């Protein structure tokens, strides 16, 4: 065991250090070279698709044997369409502007000293994620576009698929002037490997966990490397007293049913009592017709007795499923207070015809994205025009909301003098 | 003991939660109100100076009894001048633009959805620092200007001074429309109080440690709240083969002797062998005349035998004193490699007449600030034109280098719709 841990340690450390060397080269790589590499990576996914699908087939078989739940099996499954989408994502990145080298600020002091603030890559990104193999390709592409190397630690259930994908990316990079070491896959299944990765200060510049709440909590707790916390979305829609009923219905149904398993789906509905008295039963009924299990507080159930009982636990839950608890509130302030207490600072919406109420809500609610009269489902890198996203940050430091290429950069002050001293 | 810990827990938790309530009010406070508060705080420092000086006197007496080293005693000591400087800092902040509410980006989608990226406060800042009482006032002022509340945990050796300063700030805030709870001082001397503060995710948005390497390491290791790592400065100057000797001498002497105890002072000198052969003895001699202990690698000592022996340990040390180890290198690449290995990513300089060499160095070195032909001493918030600084970040996430008011903000996406769904 001790020996195994030591071996595990050496794989992670070796790969992180190799990535660091590659990052130095990538940091000064020209835009054109990076774009060529992205194109080669996209091509390689198609060229090596047989090998990739066959690896995925084995992972799926193993998953079936291990009794993985259907939702997980679905995430794990690579289809021709999904592989093509990964390739398109890389091509989209190719067309985006290179953020590295952008002059963010420049000032000249009276003594002639010129202080430039220049955008630079973050360096080495440690990515820890579950199941979805597309993260392997997305993360590699986004990191590379921003001049970063990446150390990937995927789920063991997708290990063969991830290896096949990484091999394809390596072959692509081998044909370019960029280092293929820019993409590192940690294959050690030991949990200790994760711990080692997230405590490699000086080698890894940032850790991005993507997955369930348990994974994210563990990384936040154990990591000494700075973390970009992503993803848990306990999102609310507050239907204000002046909301138009048709608009409220359309938005709520979209936010709940369009794709219930994602983090920007709505998880609790807060309804002003005046609106509720008129429109709540009809909204609940329509949700039920869409296959949604409607739950509710006692006031909700007084208006719509078919609702199941909802309480404390429901307010705290990210269902990721066709379940929606309702809570009737007496005021906008009560809605904000509920969100303050239970929200995960991801996406929050108000539906109202009252602009003052909208402004109060949007300024009073702490979340990466706040909406007035629109679905929470828009919190997404490609919807925001970022091309792709490496995750959705729910913390306030560095980046908030969808994180694209720009969010994978830092800056450096470059000071040009002619002998100045203090 | 158990009881005491519990009590300690409740003080920190109570104060952090009170700060959080205050932060919600501050986040929507008008610029004018914040500026009035900053002015009132500056006035209060002068009005209550007798009480502040008397508290400081008691801390100094206690410090003497406890045998605090002279450097620490000096940092602890409040003089009339230092108190006035704190007040001036607050007035400077008053004159700076309010960062909150700035529209950082705005795009309208084809479906009419308008996505605004707006600058907002971070929320509640946890500040953990040693000795210097000016941090109490600087942090409170910077935080408030950016719309944040702050929880301060100073050194126990400055506890009376910090309390007197905080009381003055509270009296000032009590006369304004802003909540005096915006500034919270944790008085519990137990180390456990720090641990509690840095694990209050959801209540504290960021932890900023300011102090020695030990404090910073502990905070980085234990904190589950995102950290802005500050300060350790193992800075280098690399004197390239083409450097002008007069310029090199002036810059090196300034960077070492102007204020040796600060983090932007130079700690190791790297010298190209060709330059060294001609100019190293003269530079070493001049440093000695300034009271600097010159140390060196074997090649340095061959050229300047009076140098003491330097080795591994010296390359790793942030002396914060009049000591300067020299190392002769064969190339710019060797210099960059040395900095990669031993540097703390704070400030690094090259002195050269060769612009290509300067560019290679500045792009190849990982540091918050890289200099060409200027002293490392400029890495400082007020030198950079930020008015004041809450610390100098040596990490790459969120902020790098001197952190002023802007660095104490985050952003939020505000999305304005007319019923859009996906």
Notes on the structure:
The structure is a homodimer of 422-residue chains. Chain A is α/β, with parallel strands linked by helices. Chain A folds into 2 domains: 2-229 and 397-416, Aldehyde Dehydrogenase, Chain A, domain 1 (3-Layer(aba) Sandwich), CATH 3.40.605; 235-382, Aldehyde Dehydrogenase, Chain A, domain 2. The first copy, chain A, is 45% helix and 21% strand. Chain A has helices at 2-27, 31-47, 49-65, 70-76, 80-95, 134-145, 159-174, 191-197, 213-222, 245-257, 273-289, 298-303, 312-316, 332-342, 355-364, and strands at 103-108, 114-121, 124-129, 149-153, 183-185, 206-210, 235-239, 266-272, 293-296, 308-309, 323-329, 347-351, 369-374, 391-393, 401-403, 409-420. A 7-stranded parallel sheet of chain A has the order 10-9-11-8-7-12-13, sandwiched between helices. A 4-stranded parallel sheet of chain A has the order 5-4-3-6. In chain A, helix 12 (298-303) links the parallel strand 9 (293-296) and strand 10. In chain A, helix 1 (2-27) packs across helix 8, helix 2 runs antiparallel to helix 5 (80-95) and helix 2 (31-47) packs across helix 7 (159-174). The longest helix of chain A is centred in the first third of the chain and has 26 residues, at 2-27. Chain A is globular and about 70 Å long. Mean pLDDT of chain A is 94; it is low at 1-8. Chains A and B meet through helix 10, helix 15, strand 13 and strand 16 of A and helix 10, helix 15, strand 13 and strand 16 of B. Chains A, B: Keywords: Amino-acid biosynthesis, Coiled coil, Cytoplasm, NADP, Oxidoreductase, Proline biosynthesis. Chains A, B: This is Gamma-glutamyl phosphate reductase. Chains A, B: Belongs to the gamma-glutamyl phosphate reductase family.
